Amino acid sequence: MSLQNASGIERNAHHTESYARHPGLNLGAAHAQEEDTREEMVFGFWVFMMSDLIIFGLLFATYVTMLGGTAGGPGPKELFEMKSAFIETMLLLTSSFTFGMASLALKYREDKSRLVFWLVVTLLLGVGFLFFELKDFHTMFDKGGVPSRSGYLSAFFSLVPLHGLHVTGACIWLVALLGQMAVHGLDAPVKTGILRLAILWHFLDIVWIGIFSLVYLGGLS
Amino acid sequence: MSDVTSSIFGRLGWDALPFWSMLRDHSAMTIINGVIATGAAGMVVLGALAAIVLVTWLGKWKYLWSEWFTSPDHKKIGIMFIVIALVMLARAIIEAVFMRAQQAVGLDGGFLTAEHFGQLFTTHGTIMVFFMAMPFLTGIINYVMPLQIGARDLSFPVLNQVSLGLTAAGAALVMISLVLAPFSIGGWTGYPPFTELSYNPGAGVDYWIWAVTLSTLSSTLTGINFAVTIFKKRAPGMKLFRMPLFTWTALCTAILMIFGMPPLTVATGLLALDRYLDFHMFTTDLGGNMMNYVNLFWAFGHPEVYILILPPFGIFSEVFATFSGKRIYGYRILVVATMCIAVLSFTVWLHHFFTMGQSAHINAAFGIATMLIGIPTGVKVYDWMLTMYRGRIRLSVPMVYAIGFIMLFVLGGMTGVILATPSVDYQVHNSLFLVAHFHNMLIPGLLFGMLSATNFWFPKAFGFRLEERWGYRAAFCWIIGFMLAFFPLYVLGLMGMPRRSVAFLEPQYLPWTITAGLGALVILCALLCLLIQLWVSVRDRHANNVFAGDPWDGRSLEWSVSSPPPEYNFPVLPEIYSIDAFMTEKDRGQGWQAPDQYVDIEMPANSAMGVIMAVTGLAMAFGLVWHMWWLVIGAGLATLVAIIARGFVRHTKRTISAMEVQRTHEHWLEQVRRTTPIKRSQEQSTANHGLPVAPIEGAVQ
Known about the structure:
The complex is a heterodimer. By secondary structure, chain A is mainly alpha-helical. Chain A has a domain at about 80-220: Cytochrome c oxidase, subunit III, four-helix bundle (Four Helix Bundle (Hemerythrin (Met), subunit A)). Chain A has helices at about 1-15, 30-65, 75-80, 80-110, 110-140, 150-185, 190-220. Chain A is elongated and about 60 Å long. In chain B, α7 packs parallel to α20. The longest helix of chain B has about 35 residues, at about 115-150. At the A-B interface, α1, α2 and α6 of A face α8, α9, α10 and α21 of B.
C-alpha cells in the first residue's frame, strides 16, 4: 500500500520538475500541462523520424544490391563529380551549423531578429544545396545517366532525389514557419515547430553523410 | 478533340465500364462475367446513392459533418474505422463465395474467366488485409486503448482524423475500381515482373499500388499516434506493468506498424517508379532485380501478420479474464511473450520465399527462427487455459469466439510449424495448403478476435448490449463455416492443387472443392447472422441499455465510466495503483465516485483536416491511376496548401466547462444509483443495465 502511494507522490514530484525535462526548449514560465503537450509533439516527431529512417535504410540496402546492375550503362566513375558532391556536402553541413545557431538563438535570447537571420541563412544554404544537386543530376543526364538506363541508375535515382525531396519539404516548412512567426509571433507552436524542423534538418544531414560516404565516396573509390 | 478528352480523362474511356466487353463480344462466358461485374458495380453505385438519399431525406448532413466527419474524438474515429471495415468485410466475403463457387464447379471450366478470377483473389486479399483487418483493429484500439490507460484522447487527434481519411480514400479507390474496372490481377502481394508495365499495362495494378499506399501511410501515422499515446498519456500511477494486456498488445502492434509499414511504402513506391517513370528496379531486363521487391514486401508482410494477430491476443486476454471471473494468469509472462513475438516477427520474412533460390543454410536459419515463434505463442495459449482453469466461466458470445480461436489457432500454428520446414515447404509451396494455413491463422486469430471485441465492447460504445441469440448463431456459423471451407484446402494442397487457379483437371479434387464451397455458404450465413444481430439489437436497445457502464463485471478502466462514455472520458484522470484498476476499486467498494472538485477540461476542437486529406488523397490516387495529370497536380497542391494552412491555425482547443462536466457526471451517478445491480448469471437478461453486484457486498456470483 505505502509503496503504491509513494509512486503516486513520485509522479507528482515528477510533474513539478517537468520544466527540466526538455533542455532544448525554452517555453517561458514552467507550465506542466503545456510542457506535456509540447513534449508529446516532439517525441512524436522523433518516432516519425525513426519510421522515415527505415525508408532510407531500405533504399540504401537496395542501392547496394544493385551496384552491379549497370547493364552496360555508365557507372559511378563516369557519372559522379567529386567537386560538386563536396560542395553540396559543405553547404548542407554548414546549414546544420546555422540551424544550430538558430536553435541557440531560440533558447537563450528572446531576440527574434537573430533567430530569423539564422533561419534565413539556413534556408539559403538549403536552397543552394538543392541547386547544386539539380545541376548534378543535369550533368548526369547529359552523360546518359538517366534512371531508365539501368537498374543501378534507377536505384541511385530512387535514393538520392528522395533526400532532395525531403530537403525541399524542409525548406517549404521553414518558409511556412517564418510566415507563422510573422503572423503569430514567437508563440509555443512556432517554437515547437522550429524544434521539430531542427530534428528533421539534422536528420537529413546525417542521411546525406550516408549518401556521400556510400554512394559518392564508395562509388568513386 | 481526342487530345482534349485525353488530357481531361487521361486513359479513362468507355471500356472501363464493366459491361463494355459484354456488349462487344457476345460469347456466353463474357456475358456471365459481364453480368456479375455489372451487378457488383451496380451494388456500389446503388449503395452509395441510397446512402446519400437516406442522409438527405433524414436531413442529417449537418449532424454527420459536425458530429462525425470533423470530430477529433478517438471514440468516434474508432467507430468510423470499424464501419469501413464492416462494409469491406461484406464485399470481401461475397468475393470469397464467388471464388469458392467457381472452384466447386471448376472441373474443366467453371463460369468465371481467368481474368475475372484474378481480380477476385487480388481484391479479396487486398481488401481483407488492408481495408478490413487493419481498419478493424485500428478502430478497436482507437476506441478502447485511451479509455484503458485513463487518457482523454490520443496524442494527435487531428493526425488520427488524417489516418482515417487516408484509409477511407484507399477503400473508396478499391470500390471505384468495381465501377471503373479493372483491378489488378497480380495477387495481394503484387509481385513483379508480373505487375510491371510490360506485362500489365492497364489501370489494374495502379489501382492496387495507390490503394495500398494510402492504407500504408494511414497505418504508419496510426502506429506513431498509438505508440506516443501509450508512452505519454497514461494516467498517474499507470506504470507499463500495470497496463491492461490489450493496451500492451496495442503498443507492440503500434511499434510494428512504425517499423513494418515503411518497407511496403518503399516497395509500392519503387514499383510505381517502374511503371510511371520507366525505372528498372524490378524489371527482368537492364539490371532490375525483382528479388528486392520480394524482400521489401515481406519485410513488411511478415511483421504485418503480427500486427494483425497481436491485438486479438490482447482482446482474448481481456475476454478470458473477464468471463472467467479471474485475474489473468501470468500477466508478466504474457507481456514478455508479446514482446518476443513482436521482435521475432522481423526475423522470419524469408520463409515466404524458401523456394526462390537462396542457399539451404539461409533457409534453415529462417526456418528455425520461424519455429521459435511457436514458443511465446504456446506460452500464451497455456496462460489463457490457466486463466480459465477453476474460473467461473460464463460462455458468453465473446467467449465462444475465444474458445473457438484457441482450438483452431493451435491447429493453424501446427501447420505453420510444418510449413516452416523448408524441405516440406518445397512440396506444398504455392499450393492450397498454404491458403489453408494462412486462413487458419487469420480467421480464428484476427477475425474471431475482432468479432469477440465487437460483442465485448459494443455496449461500452453504444450503451446497449448486442443481442446474444443471433450472436451465438453468428459465432457458430463462423466456426463451422471456417472449418468446412478451409480444412478441405489442406487436403487439396497435399493433393497438389495450386492456389489461385481458376479451374482444374483432376476429378478427385471435386468433392473437396464442393465441401469448401458449402463452407463458404455457411460463412455467408454467419455474415447474415451478424447483420440480423445488429438489427435486432438496435430494435431492442431500450430493454438492453447499460448506461451504468459495466455490463460484464469488467476489470479495466474503460468499464468505470458511463456507456457510452462522455467526450472527455474521465471527469478527473484516475490514479492507478494496480493492474485491473477498476476491479481493484470495486473490491474496495470505491467504484462510481464523484470527484472532490470539477475543473474545466480542454479538448481538441473539430477540424476538417481528415476530410480534406481523404478527398485530396482519393483525387490524387484516382488521377494517378487514370493518368489525369491535372487532377494529380491540383490535388497535390491542395494537400500542400491544406497542411501549410493548418500550421497557422491557433484555435485548436475547445473547453468543456466544469459545470457541464459536473452535470454530465452527476446525471450518470444518479442513474447508477437507480440501477439494480445484477449477478453475473443475469448478464444476458434484460435485468442487466450495466451494474454488477459488488464483491464487497458478499455477492455469490
